[in-house]
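Sequence in, structure out.
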Amino acid sequence: MNLADHWGFTGTRNNLTGEQHAWLQEVLPGDVVVHHGACVGADSAMHVYAMDKGNDVVVHPPTNPRLRMAYDPRALWLPAKDYLDRDRDIVDAVQLLLATPDGPERWQSGTWYTVRYAVSVAVPVFICYPDGTVEEWRPSPPRRSTSPTSPTQTKPSRSTKAEVGADDR
């Protein structure tokens, strides 16, 4: 199979918009293992979509049960971890990350933390914003330094209207 076998998901604890729901249902294939963070909101919606399509699901729950989705025995539940630890675990287990944030990038957001971490470890990310705009973030190749003493920097490259898996087929 040319598509990534393990796909990760991160999203808002708030309700997804209709556009985000439609996007997830459209882009999620039925032949991947889906990893998510087990929170109410976007994670529980992705869980339902993944199960409905016959995907295996790996759940990375947070230690704080207050915002945890209901237990589903059909999925593989890993031991609970602190939010940022489990966010990194999700990214470290996958070849592609889907994200549905509740708005533009900001620092005090677990969803955006997970997106930034994915880019930093070279995992491609497809982001669907509340209005349905889809953006792809991929790590940029390191820039060559014009001075041997200045460090190279890597910033994510961004493109819009990305098709999930288009380069992987």
